[in-house]
Amino acid sequence: MKQTLIISLVIAVMTLIGYSIYALFMWGAPRLIYKQHSCDFANIDNVEMHAEIDIPRIDSFDCQYDRTSLTKTVCFYLAPRKETWRRYITVNKFIRVPENTLPDTADFRPSVIADASHAYFTTEGSYNDERWHTLLDSNALRLWVTIHYGKQ
Question: Is there a domain that residue 16 lies in?
């Protein structure tokens, strides 16, 4: 009887510890990722949380973070998709940029954008002091994201 009680108590304590660790991880990990601004740790997750878009499968990316202006600029080189971009564009609320027009923004340098005739789509938004702007080139399979984190 005493041994059964000890075993039950050990199982209960281990279960409580397990649930506590799980809850701490589920609460703490997203906050850690959200506050991360560098390009080194959880870059894709951070961009997804701040720019409110899903980053599709990628081949590689170039990322720069400016600590002075608190700005992250990323170019994702997207992996080819079997399906069309239509669903991705709709779900992530991209708006088509008119043909032969480049976005009028300092976030995306024209020297980086190769051809104004490509199929460009854009989104932008803001939250408190933070703002973001994205540009998708569905032909060249590139997605540029600029996040201005605002005051910290």
Answer: no
Order the strands of the 58-66 sheet from edge to edge. Answer: 58-66, 71-78, 142-148, 130-137, 120-127, 95-96
pTM beyond 0.85: no
Instruction: Express each pLDDT in 11-50 by its tens digit.
Output: 877 887 766 666 555 555 667 777 888 888 888 999 999 8
The single-letter code of the amino acid at 147 is I
CA pair distance 134, 106, nearest whole angstrom: 12
CB 77 within 8 A of CB 58: yes
- Tell me the backbone φ, ψ of residue 72, rounded to 5 degrees: -110, 130
**Is 28 a member of any domain?**
no
Task: Please tell me the distance from the alpha carbon of residue 68 to that of residue 76, in angstroms, as a whole number.
Answer: 23
Closest listed residue to residue 9, CA positions, set 23, 21, 17: 17
Q: How many domains does the chain have?
A: 1
Which structural domain range is residue 138 located in? 36-148
In order of 54, 85, 112, 127, 143, the CA distances from 109 in angstroms are: 23, 24, 5, 24, 13
